[in-house]
Write a structure and sequence with these properties.
binds adenosine-5'-triphosphate; 766 residues; Rossmann fold; binds magnesium ion; DExx_box_DNA_helicase_dom_sf; eight-stranded mixed sheet; globular; Arc Repressor Mutant, subunit A; ATP binding
Length: 766
């Protein structure tokens, strides 16, 4: 038997081997929380305290769940496939599929990712003639999701004014629409499961008895409903149900904007009467200076449960700080340092570039691309979020559930088949009148529109019939052809990439089948026999028949349904997957739980990080500081911090001060690569940002500088005099970038210093 416990320290060992009682492991970043949680599962199984099916473990991302399963199979000689380890969404999906009838859902219900949800809401607002200036679709979506995250249905909400009353009404209509179409959004997955378990006593008791040990990672980021869900399943403290083992770090709570409630940690301690509170303070990830920086920074937060981190790793290197003139030069510097790291033997996948918002990535991406350094961006459009892939998925969804109106609308006229807005309006009216799905309403439409629509229905029915006995990869291939998506993109100028993405879906389906343990040849659709005999029925004392969750997945979810859920859940997961031999670029949020030898934290400017929205929100700066703490603690050996004096964001040039976080970091942990005072291009002169008019002798300096280094940007030269309609006359003092990215910094004297995009600005030579 493998000794699972030999590589744990004393506190970790105590945590792993706690008796079967509620426990909270409160510990800082890199102290081995995730390791403790995984090892505890292995230990519980190895010592025979629980069988693998008695475990329910919740992780924050699909990727983390997979990793946990891989680690478990390395530790134990068991088949981990089928274990209940996953995200809240993934686990709920599985429960709802198994008990779809009790949950009042069609077996083939489909999951709306955020993008689909937004279009469903837009559609609703239009149908209801709602002014979308007054009720922007996004606001309505946040309202609905916010309510669901708190466990509230429309009828639970007491509106406090007319606007809110309208939103509540829309919430109800939206829920009705989803129910009609057989679709559920992410928040609904949780709420529906919660309602199912709280209303259905036999079912609840069944699962309470089944899951003897419930373990949750990243507990600080659970929202109210997730916490209620855990409480319900664990029979509130283990009297009737399982034992809850939660690990988390209050300093890493970074999802308040999505409803996460760090207060769940203290609520858990109180409500579950937690006697076992273990703190882990030894950090195994980062070198000393990095850890010091993290500790000192986070000490500025007032609301903390209190803990510290120490390391035996020694000080290591100081954090390198760089002040750039602009976002472009920040990117160039990142490229230079990256090259040095690679030259010194660093693996590209051990270099991470982190930023606060996605919009910052473009400039860095461009620089990496130009330098020929492979990189991978996370949080941008993922495979299952790309338009062509979503089109193909919509066709597949219609194979499984033609009443999914979102899928129907996405592809009814894509590729174009002469079904215009008018036809859709007529169809929508018929659907409303008969209260049926768009698909079911087609026979009610007459005339030319009716004929085209009937043609579409025929295509769907025909393909469905043809693929009846086919395995999933083959079905995907036929759908790509019959839908004419492939031939459509073949005629597009830049369609080659899209075709490649579409073809990848066949391999994605093959890979999915083997990962999920379906036979490669299993029919993609669920046959009627399989539906009738699904699963192992368990009869409890009340004679109530319960389909046990151990029912082979293949009998509760057809390969097609399973694949479609997988696609939606992947599309909604904003976590990075690492491992590729490429520089890893991601937002700080997506970096949670990950670690890298070398980390860049970029754009450390007021307004960006901390983000400007934080000044408006209660607790905003503290949340940003936690985010910075998460960012710092991703690094093992080397950490770079950078900021830029000017930055082009959303088409505007911003002049930013460096982030307040620099003042909060311990000075001796920092190594300034540029002088700590603001730097200029003129070798130590106070600053080009004083906006002092550049005339006379200053102008001479600019000229001298220009003589030394002449850069061209669309024919412009440093030192050249120019005129601008609004700012008057000025002198170009610097040019950065080239081609369409070229920008000039121009001193307009009285009008001050400006950075203008040379491809846009109207400048005359004088
Ligand atoms: P985060 O808060 O970022 O999620 P965490 O507390 O979950 O971090 P882990 O990811 O579990 O920390 O561990 C951090 C690193 O330290 C990992 O590389 C892990 O393998 C290593 N580690 C944890 N415990 C030990 C130990 N006792 N001995 C050696 N290495 C350890
Ligand atoms: Mg972790």
């Amino acid at each position: 038997m493998q000794n699972l416990l030999h590589n744990l320290n004393e506190e970790q060992l105590a945590a792993v081997t706690l008796p079967a009682q509620s426990a909270l492991i409160l510990a800082g970043a890199g102290s081995g929380k995730t390791r403790v949680l995984t090892t505890r599962i292995a230990w519980l199984i190895q010592t025979g305290q629980v069988s693998p099916s008695g475990i329910l473990a919740v992780t924050f991302t699909n990727k983390a769940a997979k990793e946990m399963l891989t680690r478990l199979s390395a530790m134990l000689p068991i088949n981990t496939r089928g274990m209940w380890i996953g995200t809240f969404h993934g686990l709920c999906n599985r429960l709802l599929r198994t008990h779809h009838r009790d949950a009042a859902l069609p077996q083939t219900f489909q999951i709306l990712d955020t993008q689909d949800q937004l279009s469903a809401i837009k559609r609703l607002l239009k149908a209801q003639n709602v002014d979308d200036e007054k009720f922007p679709p996004k606001d309505v979506m946040y309202f609905i999701n916010g309510a669901k995250d708190q466990g509230l249905r429309a009828h639970d909400i007491e509106p406090y004014n007319a606007d809110e009353r309208k939103k509540v009404e829309l919430y109800q209509l939206y829920d009705d629409q989803c129910q009609r179409e057989g679709v559920v959004d992410f928040a609904e997955l949780l709420l529906r499961t919660y309602e199912l378990l709280s209303r259905n006593q036999p079912l609840r008791e069944h699962y309470q008895q089944r899951f003897q040990h419930i373990l949750v990672d990243e507990f600080q980021d659970t929202n109210d409903l997730q916490y209620k869900w855990l409480k319900l399943l664990s029979g509130h403290g283990g009297q009737q149900g399982g034992v809850l083992f939660a690990v988390g770090d209050d300093d890493q709570s970074i999802y308040a904007f999505r409803g996460a409630n760090v207060g769940n940690m203290s609520a858990f301690e109180r409500e579950f009467n937690v006697k076992n509170l273990i703190k882990l303070e030894q950090n195994y990830r980062s070198h000393g200076h990095i850890l010091d920086a993290a500790n000192v920074l986070i000490a500025n937060n007032s609301k903390r449960l209190g803990k510290n981190l120490r390391t035996d790793a020694g000080h290591g290197e100081q954090l390198r700080v760089y002040e750039a003139n602009s976002d472009l030069s920040e990117a160039s510097w990142i490229i230079e340092e990256t090259k040095n790291l690679i030259h010194d033997g660093a693996s590209r996948s051990e270099i991470a570039v982190l930023y606060r918002s996605n919009a910052q990535s473009r400039v860095i991406e461009h620089a990496l691309f130009s330098a020929g350094i492979p990189y991978h961006v996370y949080g941008g459009l993922r495979y299952f979020q790309r338009a062509e892939v979503k089109h193909a998925i919509a066709y597949l969804q219609l194979m499984d559930n033609p009443h999914n109106d979102s899928a129907f609308l996405r592809v009814v006229n894509f590729p174009a088949r002469g079904i215009g807005v008018r036809s859709i309006e007529t169809l929508q009216a018929a659907a409303d009148q008969y209260r049926v799905s768009l698909y079911a309403a087609v026979p009610y439409v007459t005339g030319k529109a009716g004929t085209s629509l009937a043609g579409f229905v025929k295509l769907i029915e025909g393909t469905r019939f043809e693929t009846q006995q086919m395995a999933l990869p083959e079905l995907v291939r036929i759908v790509l052809e019959q839908s004419t998506l492939l031939s459509h993109y073949a005629t597009e100028k830049e369609g080659a990439d899209r075709i490649e993405n579409l073809e990848q879906m066949v391999s994605a389906a093959t890979q999915f089948l083997s990962e999920e343990g379906y036979g490669q040849g299993a029919p993609a659709h669920l046959g009627p026999q399989a539906q009738a005999s699904s699963g192992t029925a368990v009869v409890n004392e009340d004679g109530f028949e319960i389909l046990d969750a151990d029912a082979p997945l293949a009998t509760v979810m057809s390969p097609l349904s399973a694949f479609l859920s997988h696609a939606s859940l992947e599309a909604g997961d904003n976590q990075a997957t690492i491992g590729q031999e490429a520089v890893q670029m991601m937002t700080v949020h997506s970096a949670k739980g990950l670690e890298f030898n070398n980390v860049f934290i970029t754009g450390l400017e007021e307004g960006l990080f901390p983000h400007e929205s934080s000044s408006r929100e209660h607790d905003g700066v503290e949340e940003e500081r936690r985010l910075m703490y998460v960012a710092i603690t991703r690094a093992r050996q080397r950490l770079y911090l950078s900021f830029a004096q000017t930055r082009m964001l959303h088409g505007q040039t911003r002049y930013n001060m460096k982030s307040r976080f620099f003042e909060e970091l311990p000075e001796d942990a920092l190594k300034w690569l540029t002088p700590k005072v603001q730097q200029s291009w003129f070798g130590g002169r106070k600053s080009a940002w004083d906006e002092a008019p550049l005339v006379g002798s200053d102008n001479a300096i600019a000229q001298k500088f220009a003589a030394k280094a002449i850069s061209t940007g669309g024919g412009w030269r440093i030192g050249e005099s120019v005129a601008h309609a609004k700012f008057g006359e000025g002198v170009i003092v610097n040019i950065e970038g080239s081609g369409n990215n070229a920008r000039a910094q121009i001193n307009f004297g009285a009008a001050g210093m400006k950075v203008l995009d040379l491809s846009i600005a109207k400048l005359d030579r004088i």
